[in-house]
Amino acid sequence: MSMCINNYAVSVEVAGQQPHESSGFILKTLCNSKSLILTSKHSVCIERNLCTDITIDKNSCRKCKAKLDHTKISIIFKKIKITPQNVYASARTDVALLEVEYVEDAPFLSLTNENENKYVAWYNLGNDRFLFDNPEIPNDGLIKFNIASNVNADLKPKKRMFVGVSGSLIFKKIKETYYPEAILTEDGGGNDIGAEQLDRTLVKELEELSGTILFNTITDIINKQPDKIPSTNNGSLFNLLEKSKQLSRSDQDYKYMIEELTEFCSARPGRPIIGLKNKLIEGQRQDLFSDAEYLSNKFARRVSAGQFSATDEVIFFHCLSMINSVFTQSISSSIKNGANDKEIDKKILDEIVLPLYLEVSKFALSISTEMITGMLYFLTGKCHIRWNK
Questions:
Q1: Terminal Cα distance for the chain, rounded
Q2: Is residue 320 located within the same domain as residue 360?
Q3: Per residue in 105-164, pLDDT tens?
Q4: How do 142-150 and 128-133 pair as beta strands?
Q5: pLDDT for res 221
Q6: Number of domains in the chain
Q7: What is the phi/psi pair of residue 209, to 5°?
Q8: Same domain? 334 vs 375
Q9: Is residue 386 domain-resident?
Q10: Which of 35, 53, 153, 169 could form a disulfide with 60 if both were Cys (CB 3.0 to 4.6 A apart)?
């Protein structure tokens, strides 16, 4: 991840409380449908200053069911104040998600099972940071880190309390990429801090609460659960690419492929041309339109540029044909059988986006999960794909 990851640290404030600023981190979901902020639950609790449970049980915030009010919360991101559109609280951990207006340049984040001993977290809008090491084995999702360095401590002894750091996202850095590991939630005393580990159970809970895929778990799936991803390839793309190298553009097989690709990039004959928005309205998926339009246009610009290599032509043909086939044969039937929107989105991710990405990314660095999703919406706008219930 080449971007300056610290630029996406935010400050979190709650109205009506004594001045107390916390931290969080803004990210873009894998499906590109929302921007969300990860923070600690106690950082957005409007009853925090009145709470006496914490003096009795330091883990009370994990179990707390106090109602959270998103209208009382303010986010400072790049010196701009934002009011969240919604807030979601974990029922078993001290973690909360804030939904905000879509932030186009916010990063996608991936999880990984690779081990590391050095960790970093940013706070104060990314201007300050902690370095951690020696994580303990998680106990019930809680993990302790040793504070290796507070870069603003001026070599003074480590303090017991640090202000404004709760809710900071803790990363591990592997080969120049930052992977989220935990949410900082407590001052453990002395040299330690406590954090909620972003394990599978917590990630699943947060995704169910927010109705979206929170992290790109491709690395995690490849390392741990390859059987969970349906395969689209069976060598099909490799065979196409190898065969294309043996053909010239004047060969009939190559011409047929280009004709098929051109058809996918054109409006489908025999169907009314009503546009992407009306197609989604027709399928009662207006919620997708903003992101669908952005991603579809992004892919359309790539197509209209017309500067394809032979490899691009093969890969685009393969992706568009696979998306069209899987949607028509599997996704469409689930829609007609009454599956809810969350189930449909998960099915699209599991049967189209992830398997295609895993297959195609071996041959083209420019293909991302975002582009594959854009192809899906592009085909929708061209009336190849229908969302009718």
A1: 39
A2: yes
A3: 888 888 877 788 889 999 888 888 888 888 888 888 889 888 876 555 444 445 545 566
A4: antiparallel
A5: 42
A6: 2
A7: -65, -45
A8: yes
A9: no
A10: 53
